[in-house]
């Protein structure tokens, strides 16, 4: 692995001790020999053996880097801190629960390589979700409301697997839960976004950190905030004058 890999895979985790080793193994299998990459795990103050498992894996996986929060800060902050620590110009994100398939990362990279330079986000689209019926129903309505309010032309913003340019991401306004609104925020900044169908799997270990009620209560406030950001956005091209 070089000092400046082509791709950084950022994975936020909280209490995912049984998912760490399988997911790291899948990331390595999907990317090693195909692209120069690093893996940046961000441990958000796990209370189980997640951090210990990651430290053990570092002995055999040279691409793996581990950073940890000193206090619990949530998924959006974990993603952002992982992106800030990353050395690659492009970032792939995965949820730490193993429901995203690392084998889809090369597909996103291929879409980027064949795409428009103005496209800075390739967002996973779970066309065959493996969640409970209640969670799928809640997400369907949440996506419909979000799409109507933000007009981001994105069928699935909650999918954890995404590929985006590091510089463009770090230029976005930061707030808790921002990771759920990346297409709208990227479009607000003047960039194009593309949704790419990806695989989705059942959780095989651990428990979900969210339920439908807390997602809904937070989502209402976030939607209003993102809509306000879009309304108040102003963009213009700039040029530097010669001496």
TrEMBL record:
It comes from the Bacteria. One of its GO terms (molecular function) is undecaprenyl-phosphate 4-deoxy-4-formamido-L-arabinose transferase activity. Residues 8-169 form the Glycosyltransferase 2-like domain. Pfam families: Glycos_transf_2. Keywords: Cell membrane, Glycosyltransferase, Lipopolysaccharide biosynthesis, Membrane, Transferase, Transmembrane, Transmembrane helix. The keyword Nucleotide-binding does not apply. GO terms for biological process: lipopolysaccharide biosynthetic process. CDD domains: DPM1_like_bac (cd04187). Transmembrane segments: none annotated. InterPro entries: Glyco_trans_2-like (IPR001173), Glycosyltransferase_2 (IPR050256), Nucleotide-diphossugar_trans (IPR029044). GO terms for cellular component: plasma membrane. PANTHER family: UNDECAPRENYL-PHOSPHATE 4-DEOXY-4-FORMAMIDO-L-ARABINOSE TRANSFERASE, UNDECAPRENYL-PHOSPHATE 4-DEOXY-4-FORMAMIDO-L-ARABINOSE TRANSFERASE-RELATED. This is Glycosyltransferase family 2 protein. It comes from Thermomonas aquatica.
